[in-house]
Every structure is written in C-alpha cells, then in structure tokens.
Amino acid sequence: MDTLPELSKSGLEWGAEGAFAASVLIPALLASQNPDGGWGFRANLQSRIEPTAWAFLALREYSTEPGAESASQRAIDFIRDAQLPNGSWPVATPSRQPAPGTDHAAAEENGAWVTALGCWALLIAGNSRDPLKRGLEWLCNDRPGESGFWWRLRRTIAGNSNVKQSDSYFGWSWTPGTASWVEPTSHALIALRSAPRDILPATAAERIKLAEAMLYDRMCIGGGWNCGNPMVYGVPGEPLVGPTVWALIALRADSQRSQNQLSLDWLERTFGEMGSPESMTLAHIGLKLNKRDGQNQPALIRKSLENRVQDLSAPDLAWAALALASKITWVPTQH
Amino acid sequence: MPRPEPALTPSFKRPPSRVVIRKAQSYGADLSGIIFEALQIFGLPVRGKSVFLKPNLVGPDHRRIINTHPAVIAGTREAFLRLGAAQVVIGDGPAVERDFQGILESMQFAQFGRDLIANLVDLNTDDVCKVILHTRASRLHELYLPNSLQRADFVVSLPKLKTHHWAGASLSLKNMFGVVPGSCYGWPKNILHWAGIDKAILDLNAAIRPDFAIVDGIVGMEGNGPIQGQPKACGVLIIGDDPVAVDATAARVMELRPEKIKHIEAAGTLLGHLHADKIEQLGESIDSSKTDFAVIDQFKELKAAINGS
Q1: Each residue's pLDDT tens digit, A57-104
Q2: Of A235, A240, A279, the CB nearest to B228
Q3: Can you give the pLDDT at residue B118?
Q4: Which pick of A106, A286, B20, B56 has the fewest CB atoms within 10 Å?
C-alpha cells in the first residue's frame, strides 16, 4: 500500500511526495470516512468535528483526486449539521438522526474549542455565510474564565508567583469558562482574522488584539510555544511542535517579528530531531507557510510515513497530506 | 456504556486493605516475575476478563524519568496475562502533548515489543461517552470518558512515584486524570484544574473506581514534579487492591504525610483506607523502603517524620 506511484490516480503531477499523498494518504482518508460524512479519530470510531474538519481541509486540497470532491461535500454537510443552535460546535457529536424526543441541543447544550475549527472549515468551503456568522459570534462571546471581574480581582489581591504571565491578556479556552491556552487561542485567531469583515462581531477587533498579545506573552524563552506555560515555579517550559505551529499560523501577519523568527529558528533546529510523522508534518507546515522549509523535508516526511499509514489517525493523515501538497489554499488569507 | 459504578462505602465499614512493597533495584530486573508473584497474593478475579492498564504517560520523556517506565508496563501486562486475563489493553491520554507516537518514540517503547504497542490506546482520541459524577465534590457534574476504559472489566492504575507541584504527589489517584480525553477538554485538561484539582481527583476516582494499583517507584521524581523535577532512585514497586491505601503507603515511602495530601485525605473518607492501622503491609516494610523525596516550598507541610499514623 505504501509504494510510491509515478503519478496520482487523477494523472496530475504532484511531485514525488505529493503523488505519495494523493495515492496513499488521501485514499486512506477516504476509506475511513463514516457513513454520516464525518470522521472519527480512527476508522470506525464516532464522527467528531475535529478529525472531520482536518479531513475536509485535506480533501479540498486534493479535490481533483477520485472521490475527494464528493467526500469533502459530505464532510462539510456533516459539519454544518452538527452546529448547535447557539452557533458553537460540540466536542463529541450526537448522532445525525437524534433519538425520538431529543435534539442536538438536548444532547449537547454548548460547544467548545472545536467551534474555531468548524468556522475554519466553513471559511474554506464558502457558501456558508449564516452558519459562519453564528460560529464567529459564539467565539466572540466565549470569554475564558480568567477574563471575569471576580477572577481578576482575586488574582490582583492574592497574586500568583507560580507562573510567569500577564493577566492583562486573554484568548480562548479549551472548555468554556476555563483558562486561555495557546492552541484554542490560535485556532480562534485564525478563524477571526480570516473571516469576511462584514460578518465579524463588533467585539472581534478587541478580542484579536488581546489574544495576539496573550500568545506573545506566553511564548517560551528561546522561542516556540507549549500549551501555554512558558515558566512554572521559575523553571522555563519546553516548547512543543503543535502549539508552536498553530501560534505561528495565527500570528503570520507579523511573520517578520523577532518572536516569530525566533520560534521558526527553534522549529527549524528541532525538525532534525523529530521521528514521529505528526510532529514532522506539522513542523513542515509551519516552516513552509513561512518559506523556511528545507528541500529535503518532504522526502523525510514520506520516509517517516512508509509502512505506518495504517497507524495514523485521521488528523495525522490529513496533516501529512496537507504538508506534502504543492499548494496551501487550506490556510485562509488573513486581513 | 459506562462501567457499573460500585456503591460508595465509607472507609470505616471497609475491611483492611493490603499493600505489598517489593524491591526492584533496576528496570532490568525480572519485573514480570516480581509483579506476578505479588499479584498472586490478592487472588484477583481476572481470568478470562479484560484488564485495562493506565500508566502515567504525561509527555515526551527522552530520559525516561517522567512517565511510567515501559519495562514496568510490559512486566505488568505479562503478569496479568499469566494470571489468565483474556485481554490486557494499555491506555493513557497524555496531558501536555498530543503526539502520542512521538511520546512512545521518545521513551523507546518499541524496544519492549511490537505486541506492547499493538495493545496501546491513545485515550485522548478514543470514542467517548458521558459519565455522571455522582460524588459532586468538585464543580464538575459530568465528564466524557473514553470507551476503551469504560469497557474494561478490571482497571489498574500504573503511576510513577512522583511529587507534583499542584497536588503534592502524583500517584495512583492523580494518575486517573490521564483518562480524561484531550480531544474534548484539551491539552492540558484544564477543566480539572479549574474545578479544583483535589476535588476533581476524588470525583474522577469515585466514577471510575480503579480496581488495583501498581506504583513504579524504581526511579521516581522529586521536587518540581510531575515533569520538571529530578529523578530519585527508590527501588520499589508498591502494589495493592486499594488505590487509596497504595497512595498512602507510597507517600509514606516518600517520607510525605499522606493525611496532608488533600486528595488522598479526601479519598480516605469514601474510596479506601488512608490510616496505617487499616492497611496490612506485606513484603518489604515502609521503614526499610523509605526514601526522602524533596518537595517544593509550597508543600513543605507534607514533610514530617512518619510515625505510623
């Protein structure tokens, strides 16, 4: 299954690594789509918004491949159908056909961090103005726990010397009402900074400003990001690939800023030490978007994937395909 | 479907618990044999059953000082298979890093056999079902929990012997934080911290009710654990059928006062035995196993001479 074909099935030239993605990764992704149009994290698992969003973005990038167009259409239908009445998306989706007497709202009253991914997918899909607008409104109304008056007052009085971060800034939490972290903040920023201005809520500009400041405040000392703790009890935290890449994408409007470049330096240095496909593909995505990718990286990624495709989760398959794609239309343009 | 939740029994109505301490000076020892011999003492009802091992896999661990050592995981799996378990699945949901394969590679898991990796589940991305938390100690009323855990007949908490900069100690009760799926609650699982760490530990353990615990104390971690602390050789495995009693014993081995560790103290009222007079110590004595684990300043009150209380 993992042998390298000359050309993809569509007959289009992708380059060696792109052809591998088109002929091996995309078919593996297509084979694991659930009948409801969504993806679980692995084949035959419950459809969820996160893996479906990544799979959708990957299939759109390879839409000329056989089956990709119709599968991506079913994926975006699944995402649209899973949106909750309040505009958010749930972390675990109820079945598409709710049991008698129940509805989506009853099964899951409020969504969470994956709402940003739902918005991202709708941005790429187009023709989704109303659901996108409702998703963005939910994002702008979703304030993390530390933005509340009483929390801030308590923190001002009691202080917290355990962690080193500014309490003036906040972004988005994983779960509504809890603290801001790097990844959900990055995903929300990507959606908000890319959405048409005329559907952005009035509070969006202020939220974007605070969230960008929060990300820079939470950067690790030598560049890069971890989940959001750059210093605990005086000990510097180590950066991680995933949060670093999402933060760099969210902040790419300022790609020449010294913090961005320092983080790209870290990502570039670290690439050679990576062994797992997930970290390699995400790192390559971050470097490629900033034109810092090395020529041999796609070949190294393909090598890391050989004979392991069956072990990859749906997001891993999607990220690998996106990393090896010749174009980057899946990252929306920022304004 | 959620695991059937046994009724909560106040500790004063419970029979004494048993905890075995076994010496194991290195990860090269015959851990499967040591653990198998210890498990036989308990007469566990695992023949033909599915056993779920929950190690502590926090994040990347190139030095093998953060996570439960793969040799202990492999030895425990082999021991349960020798006891007749039909299936032994291993699963965790790392708290700070979602690259599960990357974590396994950092620990050189592959050295311990393809079979071990084939039976590993990333709980962060497993299927989930919602579980009601009846104890309501924290603000959490319900949580999504992974189906691979929910399906198991017998759950074993398999932590590393560590201090913890928020909870005092990270042992078998705190280890259960790892089952909460990151795909739902993120990296880290901040909802648990926000709800109150100690109370969330109680709620989670009351809902899951791990049946057994084995603490990897061959090399533990002291100071600013669970990630940035220093390795501390201790040379023991602490094994028992009451996770509260196992944690209380482990704390005493670390020269910490378990009744001062809030979540262990709270669990001692509902989930198991905290007090030494209700724990039958087998194998090595606590006194002969004691190792002085340093703690950060915020937890100095945990340090005191252990006088059997």
Answers
A1: 999 999 999 999 999 999 999 999 999 999 999 999 754 444 444 444
A2: A235
A3: 93
A4: A106
The residues in B 15-54 lying below 8 A from A, measured between CB atoms, are none
Asked if the C-beta of A48 comes within 8 angstroms of chain B's C-beta atoms, the answer is yes
For residue B78, how many other CB atoms are within 10 A of its CB?
19
A204's enclosing H/E stretch is: helix A204-217
- Asked if the Cβ–Cβ distance from B125 to A42 is below 8 Å, we say yes
For A91, which of B105, B183, B298 is closest by C-beta distance? B183
- Supply A5's token pair: 């074909």
Contacts of residue B229 in chain A, CB cutoff 8 Å? Answer: none
pLDDT score of A107 more than 70? no
Cβ distance A241 to B99 less than 8 Å, yes or no, reads yes
**Residue A161: burial class (beta carbons within 10 Å; 0-12, 13-18, 19+):** exposed
Q: Which amino acid is at B73?
A: I
Token pair in block for residue A34: 């659930």
In chain B, residues with a C-beta closer than 8 Å to the C-beta of A174 are 185-187, 190-191
Q: Is B62 helix (H, G, I), strand (E, B) or coil?
A: coil
Residue ranges and CATH numbers for the domains of chain B are 11-303 (3.40.50)
Type of residue at A17: E
Largest CA distance in chain A: 66
CB B221 within 8 A of CB A209: no
Beta pairing partners, B232: B220
Looking at residues A195-220, what average pLDDT do you find? 97
Nearest-Cα distance to chain B for A175, in Å, is 6
Letter string b/e over residues A253-275, b meaning 16 or more CB atoms within 10 A of that residue's CB: eeeeeebbebbbebbbebbeebe
pLDDT tens, B60-95?
999 899 999 999 999 999 999 999 999 999 999 999
Least Cα separation, residue B48 to chain A (angstroms)? 26
- State pTM to two decimals: 0.93
Rounded to an integer, what is the distance from CA B10 to the centroid of its chain? 22
Q: Picking from A58-72, B7-21, B151-165, B286-300, which range would have the lowest pLDDT averaged per residue?
A: B7-21
How far is it, in rounded angstroms, from Cα B58 to Cα A285?
25
For chain B, helix (H) and strand (E) counts, in that order, are: 11, 12
